[in-house]
Amino acid sequence: MPDWLSSPENYSPVKQKNTFLQQNRGRLLNLLSLFSDKTETTSQPLNRQNSFIQLLTTITLILLTSLSRNISFIWIIYMYQFLQIALLPKLNMLTILKRIPINLVFVLLFILPSFFLTDAKTVIFFVLKTNLILIIVSYFMNTNTFFDIIIVLKKCYFPDIIIFIIDITIKYLKILSESLYAMTSAMELRSVGVNRHQYQSLSNLFGSLYLKTKSTALEMYSAMEARGFTGNYHFTRTKQRLNLSDITQTCITIFLITLFFN
């Protein structure tokens, strides 16, 4: 046996910190969480709401918030919205609450010049209204899956081709995000030490992703031709019955409309 085989060798690879792939894996996980089925939310009795009624109440609250000039009315909607958020499971509630400071910072950055051009009270009132609208939209998106939204669009008689494009786009994003996350995980597991060709690895990664996207699109087009796609979008209808939560939400919305005009 050669001597070099029996001699001990302690090799400690140099770790590379803050690589591009490691930084964006968390973002990919956040993107994939958007497509997850929110079964924990819909399993709660108080949150098992009809998607169509929830969309109507969401649009109504946004319109009332946009048209209102009464600060007390805005605070009432704030209280109602935070009460709804408090009834959500812990994970969903924290997801919405974490977005509120981020949304508020972006709103302040966009309207920062207005502080020097108009009255400060008007600007603060506008910030409160904009932040409230973002909270309302965030609550709706967090308590409904993309499939629920597509069903609501179908009930609102949206054109089938638009619904089909939205549905295919969402499914493409999910498939490509899963593929990209799997490839980044594989590259990280196979990498040892310092990668001196990060940009080359990145270009190879996106090249492989492009080829997968192209092959998937061609396969889907061939499948649509084989099945005789005529432009009509069909999906499995799920019946959503009205419950106590829907009736309560509708009554509160009617009360807010009455309060707005009084």
UniProtKB/TrEMBL annotation:
It is found in: Membrane. GO terms for cellular component: plasma membrane. The keyword Cell membrane applies. The keyword Transmembrane helix applies. Pfam families: CbiQ. The chain crosses the membrane at residues 52-80, 100-117, 242-261. Keywords: Cell membrane, Membrane, Transmembrane, Transmembrane helix. It is a multi-pass membrane protein. InterPro entries: ABC/ECF_trnsptr_transmembrane, ECF_transporter_component. It comes from the Bacteria. This is Cobalt transport protein. It comes from Dellaglioa algida DSM 15638. The lineage of its organism: Bacteria, Bacillati, Bacillota, Bacilli, Lactobacillales.
